[in-house]
Amino acid sequence: MSDEEELFSAVDALLEQAVRDPLPEPAERKRLREAAGLTQDQVAGALQTRREAVGNWEAGRTEPRPPKRAAYARLLEGLAARFPAPGPAGNTSTASAGPTATPARETASRTTAPHTAPAPAAAPRPAATSRLASTSRRPGAKTATPGKTTAAVAVDPRFAHGPLAVIDVGADRKVVAYCTGGLVLDVPAKSIPALVDWTLQEAKLGQPKLSGPGKDADPLLVLTESALERYGLPTTLTEEERLAGRLSEGHKVIKQLARAEWKLTKRGFGPWARIYRPAKGSERACVQLCIPSWHALDSRHWGTAAQLPPAELARVLGAYASRVMTPRGSTAVTGLELMTALHPPTRASAPHADGTRHSEHNPGSLGKDPVDPAPCEAPDGHPLLADLPRFHIRGPGEKLLEEAYDWARPMTDAECTLRHLVGIDVNMAFAAGANGLIVGLGAPTHVKAPVFDPKLPGSWLVDLSHVDLSRVKVGKDTWADLDAGLLPSPFTPKGERPDGPAWYATPTVAYAVELGYDVAPIEAYVRYANGRYLDAWYQRLRDAYLATMADLGVGADLTPADFLAAMDGYQERDPQLAIVVSAIKATVKGGLGKLRERPRGEGWRPGEPWRALARPTWRPDIRAAVISRTRINLHRKIVKHAAFTGQYPVAILSDCVVYAANGESPLDFLPYRDGKPLPGGFKLGVNPGLVKHEGTQTVLWGEGVREQFNAPELNLARYIKDGTVTDADNGE
Predict the structure, then answer these.
(1) Which of 442, 588, 548, 537 is nearest to 211 (CA)?
(2) Residue 69 and residue 437: Cα distance in Å, rounded?
């Protein structure tokens, strides 16, 4: 065969393949998967490929090759038959931009005439997918290509003006709504009930659902102080109202809402208020209010967001909403709501003979009913423990205690001869701990003398005191001899070696086996119904974090030296986006914390139930499993590093580790060869699970503060960032 014939044959084969296995557009591939409630991991498992490959297919970066292409086409064809693309009146969030995706300024009604915001400059919608702002960067700092961190998504015409608006009163006394993308709308409403009506009928605010069986996000209105005054609300709460978390029931605005037949949720009219009417079928009528001057935006997580001008506040909250979800309350509340939004408890059944459907359990979710924890998983004061003596203190053999590290040790003579203490911090450590973690989806089953199964989530009563860190497995057939006195135990938050049976989550016991030791559980509470419930949650927050960091000039493909340079002062490049990063990280930690929310006043007494127990998402076992895995992930890296370099940590606090070194940079002690890190050890980078530079102080500083407070084991990781020590470490 001639060269020309060979080339033509190859081209003909490609054409034949393209005709045989046509694929929809990348955005439609993602829509079909999400409509079916499938994760990228599930699709990847069925097609025997990696999750990253499925993500690339959905983003249009790559195309599947035979034989996976034919199988992928078959899957999408089947999903398309079950979940046809909605019409113009439905959810067209993944449809091509066209007549149904009219730009926001062209769709504004007569009473919502748009203006151009003074700042930031108007940008083509959707704002979430465009560059949020041009930023100044340090020389040499690199940024990821925008196309790698954001994907073009068509605008749903129902929500043409974005997920939220900041309501403000201008100098001309006109009420305006600052939306995302720089759009400003006139607001004709003269009262809070009228404002709610305008929002639902004309404002075109909201956000499409994140999962097929889920619900669209309700519109969010953020009221500035001038807007509060205009609508008859106080700019600040009284001390009594602040403690109650709401306005008094007799306030005139609450009476106005009642006359207009609007209702408030049980938390009343507070910093995060929800105003609604009972749903009729699938139609919801609900608007959420956020009131920054009532401390709705916690400065620990939102920084100075509450003091920003309206347009800039709309940009910050809009970026967070587009990348995470529309805020539903604090970052902790939003983190928990994101879990439910991605895995709704119910879904519509297949149609019956008469075409009707009913609500049924959504596989992979936690369901709609709460479940009791195992007794060892219940926190003190839980109703399951009501029969315990009043002042009884439960020990490790009665209580599951999976918490983050708070450990430190005195420095050795050799370490004192070095010049610096360098802290490294794991990026999004708890999010990384949730990635791929198998957790229970239902109630626990009690088992006596079980055989340990590392793939079975649960709580295990087992004696791990025999695990000796002086000799551990660091590979399949590789053992390492270590100085156990310089290492924390992986089994306790304080790093102390256990002295008998104790309760542990599955990842902790699995690590003991990984280190080369046998385990013999005495009893366990296991969950046979299980799954990777947090995978989609992790992926959503990971993508939000990476996209925002890329916009700040910190890309995922930087060399270690370039990464450290890019991280130096990244927050100053765009302080508003730095606020978004802080809020994303707080969403991770707060959402996991909400899984074991404790009583919050309300006249609660030990032994009585509290409000959070009524949620199916009150799951202390899931929280414990994530923290266990996060702590174990960190210890594994520490052991790998010690076995390879002979270096041991001086202090650990949660996800921060401090080492003694001769230089000021992490590169002065992290082993890199030809630009590649130690396999299984610490690696510099922006991705969750990789590490960044937390701070550097001198060894003299460390010894000095320990001597000053007469605390030889003062946890220096707590103060390594800026070196400021305000009081002796009390371990809390």
Answers:
(1) 537
(2) 29
DSSP state of 690: S
Closest CA to 213 of 309, 16, 346: 346
CA–CA distance, 506 with 439 (Å, rounded to integer):
9
Which residues 6+ apart lie within 8 Å of 651 measured at CB? 407, 408, 409, 657, 658, 715, 716, 717, 718, 720
Distance, in Å, from the CA atom of 540 to the CA atom of 422, rounded to the nearest integer, reads 31
What CA–CA distance (Å, rounded) separates 628 from 636? Answer: 12
pLDDT at 13: 52
Question: How many percent of the chain have pLDDT more than 70?
Answer: 86
Helix (H, G, I), strand (E, B) or coil at 127: helix
Query: How long a stretch of residues is the chain?
Result: 732
Residue 120, preceding peptide bond in cis (omega within 30° of 0): yes
C-alpha torsion sign, points 394, 397, 399, 404:
positive
Return d(Cα 338, Cα 536) in angstroms, integer.
Answer: 9
pLDDT of residue 14: 54
Tokens 């990026």 locate to 427
Q: Do 470 and 484 form a contact (C-beta atoms < 8 A)?
A: yes
Does the pLDDT of residue 531 top 50, yes or no? yes
Report the C-alpha gap between 418 and 331 in whole angstroms. 41
The pLDDT of residue 34: 82
Q: Are 394 and 617 in contact (CB under 8 A)?
A: no
What integer best gives the mean pLDDT of the chain? 87
User: What does the alpha-carbon distance between residue 275 and residue 221 come to, in Å, rounded to a whole number?
Assistant: 11
For residue 269, the one-letter residue type is F
Whole-model pTM: value is 0.80
Comparing C-alpha atoms, which of 710, 436, 690 is closest to residue 563?
A: 690
**What span, in angstroms and rounded, lies between the C-alpha atoms of 655 and 670?**
17
Query: What SS3 string covers 350-396?
Result: CCCCCCCCCEEECCCCCCCCCCCCCHHHCCCCCHHHCCCCCCCCCCC
Distance CA 506, CA 514 (A): 12
More confident residue, 35 or 449: 449
Which residue(s) pair with 286 in the sheet? 276
Contact between 656 and 423 under an 8 Å Cβ cutoff? The reply is yes
CB 286 within 8 A of CB 274: yes
Residue 138 is which amino acid?
R
**Of residues 236 and 122, more confidently modeled:** 236
State phi, psi for 326 to the nearest 5 degrees: -60, 125
The letter for the amino acid at 404 is A
Q: What is the pLDDT of residues 182-241, one digit of tens each?
A: 999 999 999 999 999 999 999 999 999 999 888 999 999 999 999 999 999 999 999 999
**Residues 627, 534 contacting (CB under 8 angstroms):** no
pLDDT at 110 over 50: no
AA identity, residue 199: T
